[in-house]
Amino acid sequence: MDVTQINNMCANTLVSHLGIEFTEVGDGYLKATMPVDDRTRQPQGLLHGGASAALAETLGSVGSALRLDLSRQVPVGLEINANHIRAITGGTVTGTATALHLGRRTHVWDIKIEDETGRLICTSRLTIMVVDR
Amino acid sequence: MDVTQINNMCANTLVSHLGIEFTEVGDGYLKATMPVDDRTRQPQGLLHGGASAALAETLGSVGSALRLDLSRQVPVGLEINANHIRAITGGTVTGTATALHLGRRTHVWDIKIEDETGRLICTSRLTIMVVDR
Amino acid sequence: MDVTQINNMCANTLVSHLGIEFTEVGDGYLKATMPVDDRTRQPQGLLHGGASAALAETLGSVGSALRLDLSRQVPVGLEINANHIRAITGGTVTGTATALHLGRRTHVWDIKIEDETGRLICTSRLTIMVVDR
Amino acid sequence: MDVTQINNMCANTLVSHLGIEFTEVGDGYLKATMPVDDRTRQPQGLLHGGASAALAETLGSVGSALRLDLSRQVPVGLEINANHIRAITGGTVTGTATALHLGRRTHVWDIKIEDETGRLICTSRLTIMVVDR
Lengths: 133, 133, 133, 133
Fold this sequence. Notes:
The structure is a homotetramer of 133-residue chains. Chain A has 133 residues and is an alpha+beta fold. Chain A has a single domain, classed as Thiol Ester Dehydrase, Chain A (Roll). Helices cover 23% and strands 44% of the residues of chain A. Chain A has three helices and six strands, in the order ααββαββββ. In chain A, strands 1-2-4-5-6-3 form a six-stranded antiparallel β-sheet. In chain A, a hairpin with a 2-residue loop joins β1 and β2. The longest helix of chain A has 19 residues, at 49-67. Chains A and B meet through α2, α3 and β3 of A and α2, α3 and β3 of B. β3 of chain C pairs antiparallel with β3 of chain D, so a sheet runs across the interface.
């Protein structure tokens, strides 16, 4: 799947609802952007940490799905964790997922979210279990 | 603040955008609901793990804000982690935050998310740093 | 297995090397103690956070092993996380593991570590994958 | 402090008790080794995940201590998390800590543990709070 197909697949989901758009997908490597606006901010006007977690989990989950033959196996998100490093009030953030481990039974993704000048906003790790259908 | 005031404060944010509504707030204890629908699902039709993380982070952050004199101190979300225990495709989930630690410099929250029959969907922990203004 | 058998099984391992001793085991519930001394402290004389993590992972892993028919399945520790809540310089800590989820493919444990007066030292969560031999 | 001084400082602690030895320290970058033997294994003969967590927390904590003027500030470990990627039964592992964030109030470390051939055994993240004395 290319980025257009992935973005189409995400229509009418949390992913599109938050304005997340995939911009690059490769083997064990994906990028997506997310706006910092009323859809993703908390009451004090900062990017909500939950939006960062949603972007991170989206990137890793899609990355795992792209690795699998989905007629035989599905990726199941088991655990996500995230450190919120820096506050941001507007603009766009970019998340980059890099595979730390792509095993037979589990995938582990590192996801970093940066602002438009490359400063680290959030660092996250996602654990996926590969389950036979 | 009562639940109506908290829900009003969350208008035009990620919180309202996901349909999250606070239903109960007490000292070191809060509840909120979230719909499982196109706003919170992933492409396969299941509740997106990122929506669970967003609900968890919302509950703990508001819980910490309610404990502080916000003219002097602010809660800063440092780290969130979450285990996704069970898939769910529709209805409403309820998150309950319980304080594990309410110290001078840090707060730690346990957040559990359950379906309408009380089955565990997600268990999460949020670390908050209390920062002087 | 009773606690004596478990403690014997842990001879000549990290578990015995840190002075960890199981004191109670039940279904989805286990307790073990650990001394706070030169074996488990960091250079400033406080309990090392890594010792807490080791106690937590020991409790959850043994708890999962007790649930499985080990001739057919093995528990594999995937992820551990821990919040260090309170410093402690001596005495004994007690860890209590409680099952949050005991599924077909994964187990999730909550582990709390307390001092001799019941104050919370550490709270941890362990994710176990159940793998067929 | 050089590695010899750090290793001396860690005498009679968990660090020395597990056989952990620092081999390289720089600004925001540290390395230490740990044996996989009866001191660090679990009952099935594999490296105990808690030993990995202890190595990770040791590396990040010392890294933060080296950054601070300890007469004025102390590093406090708040949260650690770790994914166990690959089992190992013997030899030596090497942990490498890299600073993800060195702020005024918090430090965040990435720690990777590898076997002698460079395969990833464990990936961890440690959150440190910087506290004024």
